[in-house]
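Action item from last meeting closed. Structure (188 res):
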């Protein structure tokens, strides 16, 4: 079985990311000018009850993140209608919700994909294919600082932990870790 999943490494540039936003406008990571980081949260879509509570938690932390110089966006493979409904139904007035991400773009970011299995507990049909969650802190220079990629909707990083981590990183000028790509021949 062949996979086309990309592995991103800290301290290296992340893939280009541009998406339409629910409510209008466009998010383009290359045009972001955060004081410290861009927080890119990939979510499964409107069908996901875990995503609903996760993004609601993110909405509640936006002021704390912005105070630390972190710009935020949440993106899925959903189309415009589903993204608009999620933004409205989930009461996310300030959170930028991107939509229309292709699965090939999701793969560039190292995200896993799943096939739909009918209606979820929200009563919403899963798409035929969709990306699983991922969370990325990207430095203002466009390089990866931190990532968390998952195969399931459960056990995602808590935003309180992300805030604490950002505080620590900024106070101690802590470098991105996990940057070693080639470990062939390394004996530990």
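Sequence:
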């Amino acid at each position: 079985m062949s996979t086309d999943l990309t592995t991103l490494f800290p301290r290296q540039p992340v893939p280009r990311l541009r998406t339409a936003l629910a409510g209008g406008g466009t998010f383009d990571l290359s045009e972001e000018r955060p004081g410290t980081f861009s927080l890119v949260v990939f979510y499964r879509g409107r069908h996901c009850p875990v995503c609903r509570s996760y993004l609601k938690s993110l909405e509640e932390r936006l002021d704390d993140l912005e105070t630390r110089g972190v710009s935020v966006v949440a993106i899925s493979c959903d189309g415009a209608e589903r993204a608009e409904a999620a933004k409205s139904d989930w009461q996310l007035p300030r959170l930028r919700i991107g939509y229309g991400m292709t699965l090939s773009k999701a793969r560039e970011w190292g995200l896993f994909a799943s096939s739909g299995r009918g209606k979820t507990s929200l009563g919403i049909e899963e798409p035929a294919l969709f990306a699983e969650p991922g969370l990325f802190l990207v430095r203002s220079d466009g390089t990866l600082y931190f990532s968390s990629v998952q195969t399931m909707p459960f056990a995602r990083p808590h935003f309180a932990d992300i805030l604490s981590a950002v505080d620590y990183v900024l106070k101690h000028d802590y470098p991105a870790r996990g940057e070693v790509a080639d470990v062939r021949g390394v004996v530990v």
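Note appended to the action item: Residues 35 and 47 are 33 Å apart (CA to CA).
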